Amino acid sequence: MRVLVTGGAGYIGSHVVLALLEAGQEPVILDNLSKGHEAAILGGRFVQADLTDGGAVQQIIDRESIEAVIDLAADSLAGESVTHPGKYFRNNIYGGIVLLEAMRACHVKYLVFSSTAAVYGEPSQVPIPEDHATVPTNPYGFSKLTMEGMMRWYDGSHGLRFVALRYFNAAGSEPQGRIGEDHQPESHLIPITLQAALGLHPALQLYGTDYPTPDGTCIRDYIHVSDLADAHLLALDALVEGVPSNIYNLGNGKGYSNREIIATAEKVTGLTIPVEDAPRRAGDPAVLVAGASRAMAELGWRPRFTDLETIIATAWRWHKEHPQGYGEG
Q: Which member of 11, 110, 140, 211 is catalytic?
């Protein structure tokens, strides 16, 4: 199957592309390289383009005989979205409209969509089930929730079936160390922690130490990026088999505080990580932990890398060998 992967040069996207290749599929990667890296693409056909360019997107889908789309092209920083909401509405919502219209015009009926736990906002129930109220606390979460709603209407009007995967915190790297996480600037806790261990930062900024949690820091559910990639392929298989559109959480069902992440990283690396307490970031909920039983029951999804130490160890292998990301090593 020829699958268009938007954002396929990014952290999660490159792992999805690798999973598709290993499954014998034919990925076509669309990325504007604003955040992604061409060096992260290990196969398939790469086309540099922007998702907001409707003419280019439709031309690519038509020319490449695309049969399904996995959409990972989005801005995804909660804090930045609070200060620059227009950027998120343009790239995530308008870009989503462009993609849906191009798929409609080219009669492509299957879409696996990268959503987020940020759609829930401050949860009243933990672990969070998929039917929990969705009240985003930042424009990033709002933009993803808006796209979920748009997909429902396109399903009803045009038969464009979708699976929305609400990620919790993606982490780790491909176990063989071929690809990994490289954002400029980096905003995710585990890579920043490992960069601090390597001496690339004078200290790790610990944002928020007064949350209503046991140690005062945020609690998050970390899921290995290769397990995320597996879920995308299972979701695509389900759509091809004829299942109706649906939404699934992806997480391990267990939360770790920011201080626990730092302590585990020190254990994995054998290094002391300097830490500086800092104020909370806008739009960060205190606790986000997934209830992922639906994906396991209905998609047959079984995460392989569920231990935090293992997840961080795979990330450490990548960062130790590529201290400057794709620019070195």
A: 140
